[in-house]
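Lab notebook, design round three. We kept the backbone fixed and only want residue identities now. Task for the bench partner: fill in a sequence for the structure below.
Input structure tokens:
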């Protein structure tokens, strides 16, 4: 119920405007968001690198409404890749295709994404393509396949909560597209997604095992210790042939523990001003975060 409320609030434009322009609110998001600028993002990536943690930088933003905004998003991510390379950091970038113009046309989005993947290849990095709500999955995967046919410097996200995902995993494994497996963060109807947490967890486990057996350099994006233990117990791959991925600011203890055991752990590090939808999805995942925020509000 609370989850649905936060996910509904994540689409509230007026609240979003108020929150994103409030200096106090920005301070409160610091646990999950590196800051407003690429330099703030790089500072965090540098610090994580010193702690033996990898990173993927995400410039927050989604659902742009003009080609100029989509082009700006691409230029900003090209700048992020150049900054990562100049700093000599082993980071990738993560994008959402609606940030690159998916709502404005598949070709426009493909052109922008293709230029970014080429830029990633030039600096030996990778573009990780987030998965958005179920309405976008077919078009996202079609674009991923076209991008991957030209350039393999990418990874695509699949969401365990969708009933369709076993078929998508099978297809992507056959094409050798690296996958980041997550549970799924959007408010989906029960006609397309498992409604219960236990069913999502079961689906995640089965898909993770399939990726361990047949996937290309898979990434397991979860903070769920039971799933992480199950993956480790089942895994016969070398520790350099897969990654765990987690969100910046969440389960720092687990991140450090896995890195100390020699596992690759990559953190998703968001930065930028358009933080509201991302932030609300994090609150939806764990209502206890609201109390953390409230406590800091009272202190501020
Ligand atoms: C690297 C990465 C990339 C992602 N990319 C996408 C994407 O492209 N598309 C998409 O739909 N979703 C994405 N997600 C979000 C994902 O779908 C889940 O919503 C999110 O990871 C929570 O699920 P969980 O696997 O951690 O399990 P859960 O069962 O939700 O949580 C397990 C435990 O993790 C901790 N935890 C989880 N979330 C939080 C939180 N917000 N705050 C504090 N503690 C928390 C708690 O201790 C909780 O008990 C991504 C997640 C990660 C880690």
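Proposed sequence:
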């Amino acid at each position: 119920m609370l989850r649905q409320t936060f996910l509904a609030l994540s689409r509230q434009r007026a609240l979003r405007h108020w929150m994103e322009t409030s200096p106090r609110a920005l301070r409160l998001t610091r646990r999950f968001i590196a800051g407003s600028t690429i330099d703030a993002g790089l500072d965090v990536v540098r610090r994580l690198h010193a702690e033996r943690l990898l990173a993927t930088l995400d410039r927050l933003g989604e659902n742009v409404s003009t080609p100029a905004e989509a082009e700006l998003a691409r230029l900003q991510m090209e700048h992020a890749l150049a900054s990562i390379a100049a700093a000599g950091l082993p980071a990738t970038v993560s994008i959402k295709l609606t940030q690159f113009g998916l709502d404005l046309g598949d070709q426009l989005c493909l052109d922008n994404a293709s230029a970014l993947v080429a830029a990633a290849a030039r600096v030996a990095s990778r573009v990780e393509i987030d998965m958005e709500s179920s309405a976008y999955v077919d078009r996202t995967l079609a674009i991923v396949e076209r991008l991957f046919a030209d350039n393999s410097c990418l990874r695509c996200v699949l969401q365990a909560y969708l009933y369709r995902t076993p078929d998508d995993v099978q297809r992507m494994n056959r094409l050798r597209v690296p996958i980041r497996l997550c549970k799924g963060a959007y408010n989906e109807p029960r006609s397309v997604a498992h409604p219960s947490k236990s069913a999502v967890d079961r689906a995640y486990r089965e898909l993770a095992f399939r990726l361990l057996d047949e996937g290309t350099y898979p990434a397991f994006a979860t903070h769920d210790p039971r799933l992480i233990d199950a993956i480790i117990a089942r895994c016969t791959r070398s520790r350099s042939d897969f990654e765990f991925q987690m969100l910046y600011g969440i389960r720092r203890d687990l991140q450090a523990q896995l890195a100390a055991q020699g596992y690759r752990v990559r953190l998703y590090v968001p930065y930028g001003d358009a933080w509201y939808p991302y932030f609300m999805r994090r609150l939806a995942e764990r209502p206890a975060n609201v109390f953390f925020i409230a406590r800091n509000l009272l202190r501020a």
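Keep this in mind before ordering anything: The CA atoms of residues 143 and 274 lie 24 Å apart.
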